[in-house]
Amino acid sequence: MEGEIEFIASGNVTSPRGFHAGATYAGIKRKASDVLDLGILFSEASCVATALFTTNRIKAAPVVLSQQCLQSGRALAVVVNSGCANAFTGEQGLADAAEMAELAAKNIGVSPEDVLVASTGVIGQQLPMELIKAGIKQVVLAVDGGRKLARAMMTTDTVPKQTAVAVRVGDSEFTIGGVAKGSGMIHPNLATLLCFLTTDAAVDIDFLKFALLKAADVSFNMVSIDGDTSPNDMMLIMANGLAGNKPISQGSRQADAFQQALDQLCIYLAKCVARDGEGATKLIEVTVSGAPSAAEARLAARAVVSSPLVKAAIHGGDPNWGRIMAAVGGSGVEVVESKIDLHIGNICLVKAGCPLFFDKKELVRVLRSSEVPINLRLNLGTATATAWGCDLSEKYVTINSRYIT
Amino acid sequence: MEGEIEFIASGNVTSPRGFHAGATYAGIKRKASDVLDLGILFSEASCVATALFTTNRIKAAPVVLSQQCLQSGRALAVVVNSGCANAFTGEQGLADAAEMAELAAKNIGVSPEDVLVASTGVIGQQLPMELIKAGIKQVVLAVDGGRKLARAMMTTDTVPKQTAVAVRVGDSEFTIGGVAKGSGMIHPNLATLLCFLTTDAAVDIDFLKFALLKAADVSFNMVSIDGDTSPNDMMLIMANGLAGNKPISQGSRQADAFQQALDQLCIYLAKCVARDGEGATKLIEVTVSGAPSAAEARLAARAVVSSPLVKAAIHGGDPNWGRIMAAVGGSGVEVVESKIDLHIGNICLVKAGCPLFFDKKELVRVLRSSEVPINLRLNLGTATATAWGCDLSEKYVTINSRYIT
């Protein structure tokens, strides 16, 4: 391990130096106590910035705008709302996203080209621009505003998802912060509606792009809640360089430490998203090892964690492990039945393809705990991957059968 | 249209001449009133036969055995049980499947090589062979036994799925019968656990293979209940030639009529499977037109009908049509937002990418009816496809969270 990496207690997106954030209730979401729905994240120094965007062919207006904006490789701020996705909203949607950037730029005192936009919520409805206009004026930025921003991004999330890590490597010390929101329409790639990452490290743009992709691949791209991909997905990283380090570029000790820290932070956030999936009562962690290739390990792990039948069985504490085999077999990955080992928690259910006798009560106990680790060894190669998801509950259906009514 | 095709009232798998069936309660499934769990389908004349099998890499023992058996292109009978899938059961499972074929062959008085085997139920448990042995002895075959067989194949199905069509073309008259079972772990390909088709037509084996593939492609391969593919899928067709027609081969008027009849029969059964999906309260029919290619039309239609978020919204009568756009965009199919038209029932929701004002009450009424037709025009080409599925209800979760406990 290169350097020292430490999670910061109460860490968030404004933990790195020079980042400010604020949020308000603009009235876009239905009012409940403590609800926020509009926020701004801002760096006092210009950032090297890059993002990954949804692979959905229907791209929300803020995605189109932010993609254009990031062609410069720089950004200063992002304005975000929940309650309305500004997706499938045509020319009006694009104009509204641009106006949102302008309004936020005016509030902060920067140029609109430096402001990215992100939205999340109902698809196919125009943004309520009067509310957005009035709301943006109310946003007050603060160096400790990260936690408010996290709340403003929530839709069906029950808890905000945020953390930060401090990294010390050689003479350099820097911090990476992050915030993400779930919690439905979540599937690789990217299995996050929105994730904003901040760092005060100085980072070379090429390495930053590489590091973000790599971190996404071990974290958000390994999470599935429901198999649906949102048109609004955006995973952004902004590096303002205020740590004063020499810009980190590929192949250095600093780069290794940065990557490790970013991976850990993103995995932490991805697990938060999985655990808080719509209606979820537990986290499922599926590790596939002994796969012929990394791609197959990833595919198999994601297939198991995405299977509605596996998810429903785990929800009910039903020891129906055959569904795990059906899911991995159905994934298209090479498997040989007589080589497969399966563990759930510490209980070995299948060894070399043979179902073993096991303590059903003990298995039910593991299935009923808040984290269910599933280990599947294919014993065909050396590749390993881990994916995260959640159980499928009646509540998932209830939430999604009356989302806008 | 070549010839006349007519659905037969109370038609089933023994409607074609020379097919006999019978079933019993062997004790494999939990006892409820009227439960059957073991059956035999038999033709008094040797059949040209072919089948499509699961694409799951984990293949149930009866699938392995039946695949071998069908290499001859002929069969006389199939023995089927519900309650136990005999999947992921290793060498013992293969031996048990072979013994099942032998026992059935003995009961009927034919050679075991002419008997196919099919199983459905829980994965990862060995067949209770004592019950199977005793049960097979009890099965009495009858020329009107098709309806009993249909009941013996049911797992979580709430109704048996069967029909038959009478075809008249030129001088020939023949009948095709069919039975299918759902109703969970259903996803293309093939989106049916088990489907047996029978016909008294004489059919050339090459054309029979072609016709089965084609019928599967417009029917069971266009159904999704939950995105999971079973290790036991088998779609079998047996043609005994007792109609006395000249064997049907490709390119003839008879072939066209046979294909049309088979397609209609399979679509009927596929819709029965979709409508009776686990926990379903309604049938969803998604037609995608104006796609650049048939493959893309099929992919898009299946993506919409498979989306848990679309399914949950329809379950609740929630007019959240944006999810349909997210699902089609997420499918990877080429789409241009500004060209898409969307109708649900007769209500136009989107025209050339523009959301229209619509009568919300009227839409909720359509969403709450027992069949919800969704029409999506991509306006990029001329290809069309239709897929079927069902809504996602709390009951789906309830059923699947306590399947074996």
Oligomeric state of the chains in view = homodimer
Instruction: Label the CATH architecture of the largest domain in chain A.
Output: 4-Layer Sandwich
H/I helix tally of chain A:
11
Compute the separation of the termini of chain A in Å: 51 Å
Q: Count the strands of chain A?
A: 15
Average pLDDT across residues of chain A? 94
How would you name the CATH homologous superfamily of the largest domain in chain A?
A: L-amino peptidase D-ALA esterase/amidase
Give the largest interface pair and sizes: A-B, 69 and 69 residues
Element-by-element helix/strand order of chain A = EEEHEHEHHEEEHEHEHHHEEEHEEH
User: Taking Cα atoms only, what radius of gyration of chain A do you get, to the nearest Å?
Assistant: 21 Å
How many domains of chain A, as an integer?
2
| Beta-strand content estimate of chain A | 25-35%
Question: What portion of residues of chain A is helical?
Answer: 25-40%
Morphology call of chain A: globular
Task: Return the structural class of chain A.
Answer: alpha+beta
Low-confidence parts of chain A, pLDDT < 50 over ≥5 residues? none
The top-level CATH class of the largest domain in chain A is Alpha Beta
